[in-house]
Hints:
The protein has 507 residues and is of the alpha+beta class. The chain folds into four domains: 5-137, Globin-like, CATH 1.10.490; 155-269, Beta-Lactamase (2-Layer Sandwich); 274-349; 357-503, Heat Shock Protein 90 (2-Layer Sandwich), CATH 3.30.565.10. Helix content is 56%, strand content 18%. It has helices spanning 5-27, 30-33, 37-57, 61-76, 81-100, 105-150, 156-168, 187-193, 214-227, 271-315, 322-349, 361-371, 373-378, 398-415, 471-481; strands spanning 173-178, 181-185, 232-239, 245-257, 260-269, 357-359, 382-387, 394-396, 421-431, 434-443, 485-490, 496-503. It has a five-stranded antiparallel beta sheet with strand order 2-1-5-4-3. A five-stranded mixed beta sheet has the order 7-9-10-12-11, covered by helices on one side. A two-stranded antiparallel sheet has the order 6-8. The protein is globular, with a radius of gyration of 28 Å.
Amino acid sequence: MEFSFSTFLNTHEPVIISQWVKKLHTECGDQYAARPLEELFETITNAVDANYHVLVHKSYDSINIFIDKITDMRLKSGFLLSDVQKAFELYRIIVTDLLITNASKKEFKEIFESLNSCLAYTMNRFSDHFQDMQQKKIVQQNRELEQRIIKRTKAHKESEKKYKTLVEEINDGYFVIQDSVIVFANQAFCSMHGYDLHDVLGKNFCKFVATTDREEVLKIYSDNFDSKIASQVFEYKRLVKSGREFPTEIQGKTTSYGNKISSIGICRDITERIKMGKKVRENERMVYIGQITASLSHEIRNPLSSIKMNLQILSGNKQITGNDKRRVDISVSEVSRLEQILNQLLDFAKPLQMNLKPCNIHHILNSYIELLEMKFKEKNLQIKTIVEDELPPLLADGEKLGQVFINILINAIESSDPFGKIGITFKKIIDQNIEYAAVLIDDEGSGFDEKDKEEIFKPFFTKKTKGIGLGLANVKRIIELHNGFIRAKKKKDKGASFLIMIPIGNF
């Protein structure tokens, strides 16, 4: 029976709406979490209906009306562009999951292309509309500021006070540069960089720009001054007090401040926007991997099972002895290893399902240390555990965290020389005003090349003679599903360290 996308959408409409509302209320930030459920049900119902008209009837009237309405609603409520983009993206994720179990591979490909086209149109139109309205708002604010400066009179101090108050109310960072030095900055700008106001004023703007981007940013500001460009938008990496770098967008403009030609800028953090783009591309790649894996599983598993069964029969034949028996046993072992690799591929291609409940991270890690006790003893490895801070129970998937720890511990064991040491440290870390439960696992093994630091977490990257490079890739997926992150570091002398950080009270 031919698959009907219209019937599919109508049949699953209640499920799509309920899942979308639930995810919207729990996964798209504090502002969505604070909205009334009645409002979310209404807007999501309208969005589902609008998407239906695009996907089934190729009509964009309803989606255009919805985009205009939701843009006005969310902009007035102070929503971030990235949060609303993430809300739109949830539709693709939900429908894709349903399609995987309801459509054939050929139908899935055609429908997924339509779904991507619909979402691309929606995201582009919404982003352009949102930014255009926000741009007009910012330009209008700048005009008002300029007019107040031009018209200042004897009540100059009062006008300046009103001006600063207006700027402080802007959610994005606002600053003024004269001769490369910051002469004014609002609290949002200071907070974005992790400094107090007195640490910002009078400092060269380059201090707050990543080293790799300084030359380009200076050139942009120089060109802006020379050509008197009305307004310019560019991206760069800002440098915060902790030393970390974050993607940032600036809208810069040349104007007058304090009777002197200056550069004013409005900067906003675009980390979430960048992450969302990467996540969309990753989801598309995972769908592709899933399709290939499913096909390979069907084509390989059955012949592999037949080979294994026949080899096991031969292994039990008493007439086969000596080296011939050993060769058969090796073949059985290798076939089993191929089956394990195939299972790893299938597991990696599946979407991870989280089972969240209160977990004690100390107990989880200690249980896996006990599980690997024999492997530690085989190499006479010494385990040293340091508890700098008692970590509170986390709302997490304990089984999947166990997969994280056992992967890293096994890597540490395999890379360590006999009589080496493996260190485990529990502590709390505050990063960007977020408190994390942190676990540091370090070893004295062979480590990794510095150039491979970012590659080791990518699927299928490995330098081992055995294995297909999915261990650390799966570790990264699990940690990110817990809204945390993992950092790898090559130790100066010998070995490697892995820092796992999971937000405390983030769910």
